[in-house]
């Protein structure tokens, strides 16, 4: 199982590692990783691996078998051998934009308090699909409420609960299409705001900014009909 360094510090951009495996498809498995693997609507991280005598670009990151995280090279090239010591270099600009958008989508689920049926995080655009039979009557009010939450510069933090505690409080799960990962005995929660200032608490394994003010300028994009019961709401960075 790969140790998830991004889980402890989403702002860390460089770290050492040791190669523990190479997949038949050309992927690289490390003992610990800064790179977030595709999941929960958030794309896998990109960046570079350096080692004595070589460098390889990483196009994306995916989940492998038995808890492994697999780094996918951007082109066929010489790879470090198993056992080699490497240096991970994250494409920080891309990751940070994903962190900002992912956090903004959590806020969108606050200002539109409806069940979420899908979502996708992007570097300049993100979206959530809602169980929403009728279009919102006042999109400008949604954008204003979203901006107000960003401007409050609320603290974003994490907590952990057991799977049994989640089962006892199923209302924490907003997303109908993606169930929180199970099997490890505990579930990670992302909390926005603290104490009386709390506005959101939901299971999530992705990366987020430390305060909502870091999201910056965000605006409402298109609201599209995706079936009788679903509407797709898009967010865009200014």
Provide a descriptive summary of the structure in words:
- With 238 residues, the protein is α+β, with helices and mostly antiparallel strands.
- The strands form four sheets. A six-stranded antiparallel β-barrel has the order 2-3-7-6-5-8. Strands 9-10-15-14 form a four-stranded antiparallel sheet, covered by helices on one side.
- The protein folds into two domains: 88 residues, Elongation Factor Tu (Ef-tu), domain 3; 143 residues, 2-Layer Sandwich (Threonyl-tRNA Synthetase, Chain A, domain 2).
- It is 18% helix and 37% strand.
- It is built from four helices and 15 strands.
- It starts with a strand and ends with a strand.
SSE blueprint:
Blueprint: E1 3-4, H1 5-8, E2 14-22, E3 28-30, E4 32-33, E5 47-51, E6 54-63, E7 69-73, E8 85-90, H2 92-111, E9 116-120, E10 125-131, H3 139-151, E11 156-162, H4 163-168, E12 186-192, E13 200-203, E14 218-225, E15 230-237
Parallel strand pairs: 1-4
Antiparallel strand pairs: 2-3, 2-8, 3-7, 5-6, 5-8, 6-7, 9-10, 10-15, 11-12, 12-13, 14-15
The helix tally amounts to 4
What is the end-to-end distance? 39 Å
Assigned CATH superfamily of the largest domain: Threonyl-trna Synthetase, Chain A, domain 2
Helix-strand pattern: EHEEEEEEEHEEHEHEEEE
| Helix and strand composition category | alpha+beta
Provide the CATH top-level class of the largest domain: Alpha Beta
Strand content: 35-45%
Number of domains: 2
Helix fraction, binned, reads 10-25%
Biggest β-sheet: strands ordered side by side in the sheet: 2-3-7-6-5-8
Stretches with pLDDT under 50, minimum 5 residues: none
> What is the strand tally?
15
**3D shape:** globular
Q: Average pLDDT value?
A: 94
């Amino acid at each position: 199982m790969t140790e998830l360094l991004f889980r402890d510090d989403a702002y860390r951009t460089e770290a050492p590692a040791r190669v523990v495996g190479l997949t038949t498809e050309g992927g690289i498995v490390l003992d610990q990783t800064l790179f977030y693997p595709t999941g929960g609507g958030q794309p896998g991280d990109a960046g570079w691996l350096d080692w004595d005598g070589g460098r390889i670009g990483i196009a994306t990151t995916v989940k492998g078998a038995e808890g492994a995280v697999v780094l996918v090279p951007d082109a066929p090239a010489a790879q470090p051998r198993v056992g080699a010591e490497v240096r991970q270099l994250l494409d920080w600009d891309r990751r940070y934009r994903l962190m900002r958008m992912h956090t903004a989508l959590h806020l969108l689920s606050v200002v539109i308090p409806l069940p979420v049926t899908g979502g996708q995080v992007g570097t300049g655009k993100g979206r959530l699909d809602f169980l929403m039979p009728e279009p919102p009557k006042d999109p400008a009010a949604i954008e204003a409420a979203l901006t107000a939450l960003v401007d409050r510069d609320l603290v974003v933090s994490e907590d952990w609960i057991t799977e049994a505690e989640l089962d006892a409080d199923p209302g924490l799960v907003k997303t109908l299409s993606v169930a929180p990962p199970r099997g490890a005995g505990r579930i990670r929660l992302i909390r926005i705001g603290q104490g009386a200032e709390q506005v959101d608490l939901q299971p999530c394994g992705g990366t987020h900014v430390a305060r909502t003010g870091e999201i910056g300028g965000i605006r409402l994009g298109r609201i599209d009909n995706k079936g009788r019961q679903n509407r797709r709401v898009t967010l865009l960075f200014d």
